[in-house]
Amino acid sequence: MNKTVYQIAVLPGDGIGVEIVPEAIKVLKQAGERYHLEFKFTEALIGGVAIDAVGKALPEETLEICRNSDAVLLGAIGGPKWDQLPAQERPEAAALLPLRKALGLFANLRPVTVYPALIGASTLKPDIIEGVDLIVFRELTGGLYFGNKARRPIESGEEAIDTLIYTTPEIERITRLAFEAARKRRKKVTSIDKANVLESSRLWRETVIRLSADYPDIELEHMYVDNCAMQLIRYPKQFDVILTENMFGDILTDEASMLTGSIGMLASASLGGQVALYEPAHGSAPDIAGQKKANPLATILSAAMMLRYSFNQESAAQAIEKAVVSVLDEKYRTGDLMEPGMKAVNMEEMGDLVAQKLV
Ligand code: NAD
Question: Does the N terminus or the C terminus of the chain have fewer Cβ atoms within 10 A?
Answer without folding.
Answer: N
